[in-house]
TrEMBL record:
<keyword id="KW-0812">Transmembrane</keyword>
<keyword id="KW-0472">Membrane</keyword>
<keyword id="KW-1133">Transmembrane helix</keyword>
<feature type="transmembrane region" description="Helical">
    <location>
        <begin position="84"/>
        <end position="104"/>
    </location>
</feature>
<keyword id="KW-0732">Signal</keyword>
<feature type="transmembrane region" description="Helical">
    <location>
        <begin position="56"/>
        <end position="72"/>
    </location>
</feature>
<protein>
    <recommendedName>
        <fullName>SPW repeat-containing protein</fullName>
    </recommendedName>
</protein>
<feature type="region of interest" description="Disordered">
    <location>
        <begin position="107"/>
        <end position="130"/>
    </location>
</feature>
<feature type="transmembrane region" description="Helical">
    <location>
        <begin position="33"/>
        <end position="51"/>
    </location>
</feature>
<feature type="compositionally biased region" description="Basic and acidic residues">
    <location>
        <begin position="110"/>
        <end position="130"/>
    </location>
</feature>
<feature type="signal peptide">
    <location>
        <begin position="1"/>
        <end position="23"/>
    </location>
</feature>
Length: 130
């Protein structure tokens, strides 16, 4: 049941990331809306806890949607313009992806527990072994 909940949360956050990217791309040409879109994206990314099932799906949804719309359309024009606003959106997509990956928890389990005589790090730096 726990895995099913994680998958459901990840799918919802993937959709939320894609939806936020759609809104950001839709308003990126408006002068007042681009800073709002950047702030909404980054604040959502920071508010989500780091992890494979939380922050990373949001970042992947956001980045994948921007990567999908950055190419030319069949008519020959582009959804994201090649001006400052367009480059901000593409740069933000790269930043979102980097933050989503760079803040993943380190593999190998949790840090060692401190004991009554001091923390494990203090004991090792003092040359004391258990």
């Amino acid at each position: 049941m726990r895995l099913l909940t994680r998958v459901a949360v990840a799918v919802a956050l993937l959709a939320l990331g894609a939806g936020t990217a759609v809104a950001s791309v839709a308003v990126h040409e408006l002068g007042w809306a681009l800073p709002l879109a950047v702030a909404a994206t980054l604040l959502t990314l920071v508010a989500l806890p780091a992890g494979w099932w939380t922050r990373l799906p949001f970042a992947l949804g956001w980045t994948c949607l921007v990567a999908w719309v950055v190419g030319p359309r069949p008519e020959g024009d582009y959804v994201i313009s090649s001006d400052v606003q367009g480059y901000v959106v593409v740069g933000l997509a790269l930043l979102v992806l980097v933050l989503g990956i760079a803040t993943l928890p380190r593999p190998g389990g949790r840090a060692r527990e401190p004991d009554a005589t001091g923390t494990a790090g203090e004991r090792e730096s003092a040359g004391i072994r258990s």
